[in-house]
Automatic annotation (TrEMBL):
Its main location: membrane. GO terms for biological process: protein folding in endoplasmic reticulum. This is ER membrane protein complex subunit 3. Belongs to the EMC3 family. It comes from Prototheca wickerhamii. The lineage of its organism: Eukaryota, Viridiplantae, Chlorophyta, core chlorophytes, Trebouxiophyceae. The chain crosses the membrane at residues 87-109, 129-152. It is a multi-pass membrane protein. It comes from the Eukaryota. GO terms for cellular component: EMC complex.
Length: 219
């Protein structure tokens, strides 16, 4: 079993920036449960003069990051470490077990499932409920990805989703963007500036009357 790699600790500046963004979102989404004065005080702290979100941050240049050979080499090693074994296993299964019927699902299926379950066999007369060894390997690769990451080192086992992520680029699975504090601060600042205070207690009497009437407790 591969020893888990220690994850790189986040930078203190990035942790602080994400904490500020989280606090701003909490104030903006939960202001109905605090007083108006408390909301105004927090808003001034965040977006007032010399507010936390008014800080001038240098935007990250993704081109510079892509041009960093050390970073690119590290990403390539991390992805190739799992990509090569999976490709090798897939080639092994495809070479030795292609064309074999491995089992049958216990429920009826439409012919639309044939390309997914019968890879390696092109027989239109074959019942779609039968599945081949190659199809089973592909489904197991997707289904057991979480188990592999739990048992082995997370960085050493990459599933098919990570293979697709490598084709999309070096900046994350599913196209996840790199954290840009300057852009995130500006977005949160604009959202906070347009946020208006509205207490949860506003209209309580009217809502209570409507509730009592709906329960037929008030004539």
């Amino acid at each position: 079993m591969a020893a888990p790699k220690p994850k790189e600790a986040p930078k203190p500046e990035e942790t602080q920036q994400k904490s500020v963004l989280g606090r701003a979102a909490l104030v903006r989404n939960g202001h109905a449960f605090i007083t108006e004065a408390g909301f105004a005080q927090r808003k001034a702290y965040l977006v007032g003069k010399d507010g936390v979100l008014e800080q001038k941050l240098e935007p990250k240049n993704l081109n510079d990051m892509m041009g960093n050979p050390d970073m690119m080499q590290g990403m390539l090693k991390q992805q190739m470490g799992g990509l090569v074994p999976q490709m090798g296993m897939g080639a092994f299964v495809n070479f030795f077990f292609s064309g074999f019927i491995l089992g049958k699902v216990p429920f009826p299926l439409s012919p639309k499932f044939r390309p997914m379950l019968q890879r390696g066999i092109d027989l239109a007369a074959l019942d779609p409920t039968y599945f081949t060894s190659l199809s089973f390997y592909i489904m197991a690769l997707f289904g057991l990805g979480g188990v592999f990451r739990l048992v082995f080192a997370e960085d050493a086992i990459n599933d098919a989703a990570q293979m697709a992520a490598m084709q999309m680029g070096p900046f994350g699975a599913g196209g996840a963007p790199t954290f840009d504090p300057a852009k995130a601060y500006e977005t949160e600042k604009q959202a906070m500036l347009v946020a208006e205070y509205r207490s949860r207690l506003d209209g309580t009497e009217q809502r209570s009357l409507e509730l009592l009437k709906s329960k037929k407790l008030l004539g």
